[in-house]
Design goal:
With 651 residues, the protein is an alpha+beta fold. The protein is built from 21 helices and 18 strands.
C-alpha cells in the first residue's frame, strides 16, 4: 500500500495524561523494501515501559518526503528517517521506538512544549539510544572496524571502566604509554581507513545530541547496518587524541575528527561541570554554552531547551521574585526566541547575577561602524514587543556572544570592592531591568582603524595608530604626569591583552616593568626609521606577497622579538577596539561600536565598566553597548570615591 492509496492523512489524538508519551510500534517484515507500518500508543513513563529512543539529524533539508503507514493512515517522514526505520525494523517481532518527529505532534505548541520538558526522562528511561548516522558507504565497514581495533588497547589511558572512569576527567592533555615509534604507528595508521566517512556525518553537529547521548543508559552508532557501541567509539577517539598529544602530529582526516571528538569531549566535560563550583550562577550556563556554540539546532529556542535536561543547577532551579512569581524555565514554544532568551536572562537577574552583561550588549550582535547603523536598532519607548531583543540579554544563538575580548581578564575588579547596589526587574515590561551603579564619564574622542585585519600595510597602519593615539592623549590631557606609564599600560590593558604569543607571557597580567620595556622597544624597533623590526618586515615583504608573523619573529633578535610581541598585541587589541579619551580626561579601550557621548557606567560586583547609550523618549532608559577598559579604575579604585548610586534602566 502506498501513501497515495491511503484514504486519510494521519491525525493525532491528544494525549490523555500530561506525563504520557507516545511510542511507535514498528511492525516487522522479512522484506527490507516493504512499506513501513506502525501504530502509536500512549504510555506512562512512570510505568518504565520497554522502548528504544532514536537519535538522528532530522533537521536536514530533503526535497522528497517518504511515508509511514501509521494506524492505517499516511504519515509523512523525512527520507533519512525512513532509511533508519527500514534498518531498525525487525523481521520477527514489533519494535517499540520513541522518535521525536513521530511521537510528538510538532504542530501543537502546547504538546511540543510539554513533551520537550520530558525528553531528559525519555532518554534516561530508554533501554538503548539508537544513533542513526545515515546510510553506509564503501568505506564504512573498514572505518568502523579500525575504530574497534583502536579501542581494544587504550595504551595506559585507564578507560576500561567506561565514560565514568578516571581517564575521562581533564582528558585534553593525556598522552599514551609506549615508545614514540609505537605511538606514531597509531597516528600513521589513520591514513588508510576513510574515517571522514564517519566523522563528517551531520549527526555530530546537532545540539540536541548532547543531551541524548549524555543521558543514555547505553548507545550504539549505526551507518546502515554497520554499527559500533558508543563506549568503543569514544575510547577509540580518546586513544587517537592522546596519540596526537604524545607525538604532536595530527592524524589523517583531522578536521573531520575534531567534529566527532568535540561530542565525546563535551559529554565528558559535562560530568566535570556538574561538580564545579561557580562564583557566578550564570558562569555555569556561559561555560557550557561556549562549549556547544558550534552545535546546530533548527529552532533557535532550542539553544536553551536542549540544555534543560542536563542537570545544570542554576539553569534548572526555580527562583522566586519578591512578588512570589517563579522564574523556572519550562519549554514554551508559544514564546518568541527573544522572549525565551529574555526569560533566561531575568532568571539569572533574580539570582542577583549581572554577569549576563558580559555576553550581552549591541556589540555582540552588530557589526562595527560601516557595516550597520546602531541607531536603527536602538528602540524608542514604549518598547516594541514581543520580538524586541533587549540589549542586556545575551543572544544565545550567536557564537559571537561568547567571543573573547582581547583585553578582558577575570583579574579585573572595577566593581568588585563596591557594596552591591542592587538590580530589580521591571514590574511592567519584561524587556527592562533597573540597575544601580554610577555613570562616571562619557566618550569625547575615539581613534581606530576600521578593517585593520584587511589593511594592505598592517605594520604601518598600527604604527600610525599609536602615533595618533599618543598625539590625542598629549593634546587633550597634557596635565597627566604619567604618560610614559599610563599610555603603554592602556594599549595593553594593564598588561592582560592576550597577544604576546611570541614572548614568555600568555596568561595573566604582564608585569608593569615588562610592558613599559616592550613599549620602548616597540618605539625603537617598529616606529623608528631604522628599527630592526621595520627593516626586517620591509625585507621579507619585498620577497613575498604575504609574510606570516611566525616568519618575521624567527629572523629577529631578542630585543626585536619583544618589540614585535608588543606590535602583535596591538594588532589583536585594535582589530576589535578603539582608543578613547573621555570628557574627564581618562584614557582607555572601547569596542568598535562605541560612539562619542556614550556613558561609562560602573556596576558594583562586575569586573569591568560598561558603555551605555541613551534611548530616545526617555531620560532613564539606556541600551548596553558593551564592556570597556578605563585606565585607573580596573582594580576597584572607584570604591572609595563613590558614595551614592544612581539607578538606570536597561532595555
Amino acid at each position: 500500500m502506498t501513501a497515495i492509496q491511503l484514504a486519510d492523512v494521519y491525525t493525532y489524538s491528544a494525549l490523555v495524561h500530561s506525563d504520557s508519551i507516545r511510542l511507535l510500534q514498528l511492525q516487522p517484515s522479512n522484506n527490507s523494501g516493504a512499506t513501513l507500518v506502525g501504530q502509536l500508543s500512549e504510555v506512562h513513563l512512570a510505568d518504565k515501559p520497554e522502548f528504544e529512543a532514536l537519535s538522528y539529524a532530522w533537521g536536514l533539508d530533503e526535497s522528497e518526503p517518504s511515508f509511514l503507514t501509521l494506524d492505517n493512515s499516511s504519515f509523512s517522514i523525512s527520507e533519512s528517517l525512513a532509511a533508519a526505520l527500514h534498518i531498525f525494523r525487525l523481521t520477527d517481532k514489533p519494535r517499540n521506538l520513541w522518535i521525536d518527529a513521530i511521537s510528538i505532534n510538532q504542530k501543537d505548541n502546547n504538546e511540543r512544549s510539554s513533551q520537550v520538558a520530558q525528553m531528559a526522562a525519555i532518554y534516561k528511561t530508554a533501554t538503548m539510544v539508537l544513533v542513526w548516522l545515515g546510510e553506509s558507504t564503501a568505506g564504512t565497514e573498514a572505518a568502523l572496524q579500525f575504530l574497534r581495533d583502536v579501542a581494544t588497547n587504550d595504551h595506559g589511558l585507564d578507560l576500561s571502566a567506561g565514560s565514568a572512569g578516571p581517564g575521562w576527567f581533564q582528558f585534553s592533555g593525556r598522552t599514551l604509554k609506549g615508545s614514540h615509534e609505537e605511538v606514531m604507528q597509531i597516528v600513521e595508521s589513520t591514513a588508510k581507513p576513510r574515517l571522514d566517512d564517519i566523522f563528517e556525518r551531520a549527526w555530530f553537529t546537532r545540539l540536541w545530541i548532547i543531551q541524548e547521548i549524555a543521558l543514555a543508559k547505553s548507545a550504539a552508532l549505526f551507518c546502515g547496518r554497520e554499527s559500533i557501541e558508543w563506549e568503543l567509539f569514544a575510547i577509540s577517539l580518546c586513544v587517537l587524541k592522546a596519540a596526537m598529544n604524545t607525538t604532536r602530529v595530527g592524524i589523517a582526516w583531522l578536521s573531520s575528527f575534531e567534529k566527532a571528538w568535540h561530542v565525546v569531549d563535551v559529554k565528558a566535560s559535562l560530568r566535570v561541570a556538574l561538580h564545579t563550583f561557580y562564583m557566578s550562577p550564570y558562569n555555569e550556563l556561559a561555560n557550557f554554552m561556549d562549549m556547544v556554540k558550534g552545535q546546530k539546532c533548527k529552532d533557535n529556542r532550542d539553544r536553551i531547551y536542549a540544555l534543560l535536561g542536563l542537570g545544570l543547577y542554576h539553569l534548572s532551579n526555580d527562583i522566586k521574585s519578591s512578588n512570589g512569581m517563579g522564574s523556572k524555565i519550562i519549554p514554551d514554544y508559544s514564546k518568541s526566541t527573544a522572549e525565551v532568551y529574555t526569560h533566561v536572562a531575568r532568571h539569572y537577574v533574580l539570582q542577583g547575577d549581572l554577569f549576563i552583561l558580559h555576553h550581552a550588549g549591541l556589540w555582540r550582535r552588530l557589526s562595527p561602524p560601516g557595516g550597520c547603523k546602531v541607531q536603527e536598532y536602538v528602540p524608542e519607548v514604549p518598547l516594541p514587543s514581543p520580538d524586541y531583543h533587549p540589549s542586556w540579554v545575551p543572544d544565545f544563538n550567536n557564537a559571537e556572544s561568547f567571543k573573547r575580548i582581547p583585553w578582558f581578564s577575570d583579574d579585573f575588579s572595577a566593581g568588585f570592592s563596591m557594596r552591591p547596589a542592587g538590580v530589580a526587574l521591571d514590574q511592567h515590561s519584561i524587556k527592562r531591568i533597573h540597575v544601580a551603579g554610577k555613570i562616571i564619564d562619557t566618550i569625547e574622542r575615539r581613534i581606530a582603524i576600521p578593517g585593520l585585519a584587511r589593511s594592505s600595510n598592517m605594520f604601518q597602519a598600527v604604527c600610525d595608530l599609536v602615533e595618533s593615539c599618543l598625539g590625542a592623549h598629549l593634546e587633550l590631557t597634557p596635565w597627566r604626569p604619567t604618560t610614559e606609564l599610563d599610555f603603554p599600560l592602556t594599549l595593553m590593558a594593564d598588561g592582560v591583552a592576550r597577544s604576546l604569543k611570541y614572548g614568555t607571557h600568555t596568561e595573566g597580567r604582564i608585569p608593569v616593568a615588562d610592558v613599559v620595556e616592550m613599549y620602548q622597544l616597540f618605539n625603537k624597533h617598529c616606529r623608528g626609521k631604522d628599527g630592526e623590526v621595520r627593516l626586517k618586515v620591509a625585507e621579507l615583504s619585498a620577497k613575498a606577497d604575504s609574510v606570516s608573523s611566525q616568519e618575521i619573529y624567527e629572523v629577529l633578535t631578542e630585543e626585536g622579538r619583544k618589540a614585535f610581541g608588543f606590535y602583535d598585541a596591538l594588532c589583536d587589541v585594535f582589530e576589535q577596539c578603539q582608543f578613547m579619551i573621555s570628557a574627564g580626561g581618562g584614557i582607555g579601550l572601547i569596542l568598535m561600536l562605541a560612539e562619542l557621548g556614550d556613558a561609562v557606567f560602573v556596576v558594583p560586583g562586575l569586573a569591568t565598566p560598561y558603555l551605555l547609550r541613551g534611548v530616545k523618549g526617555s531620560d532613564a532608559d539606556f541600551v548596553v553597548i558593551g564592556p570597556c577598559y578605563v585606565r585607573g579604575i580596573m582594580d576597584g579604585e572607584m570604591a572609595s570615591s563613590t558614595s551614592e548610586w544612581e539607578t538606570v534602566s536597561l532595555v
